[in-house]
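Table 4 source record.
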Amino acid sequence: MKIGELAKATQTQAETIRYYEREGLLPEAARTDANYRVYDESHVQRLAFIRHCRSLDMTLGEIRTLLDFKDAPDESCADINALLDEHIGHVAGRIRELKALEKDLKLLREQCASGQANASCGILSGLEKAALEHSRAPAGKGHAAHIHGTHPQVGAPAKSGPAKVAGARKSAAR
């Protein structure tokens, strides 16, 4: 199948597929004489795996590590468990950030009664005050510092194999 067919089958944009190939997450496709990429069912399955991991808010580094483990089926899954435990910790932290965000938004909402002029709006003045405070605060504090889909590097450095990950984790634990 050509890239457009793979894109349609997996609900993934063609440019994303090319990006995953460049990043080494998806193996390069064979080429036709006319230089078109030709994909097979293994690409569909691997792309579905990648997309599902992304839906779980995993970073490309985490996915790369999981794919390395997937490509070494006889290895122990202990490091996979450790990677997922780290990711769960990140998700729990993000949930705490979102709960704090919800609290902040509810407090902000309480600052305005409906039907008054925008110049008197407590929400707008509260946002302006917070923006000024935020611009003076050190970088990286609070939920505003979080960017969706990112978190501290969990897993192995790019393009390392399961054996390297296991060794890195063992030496880090010492």
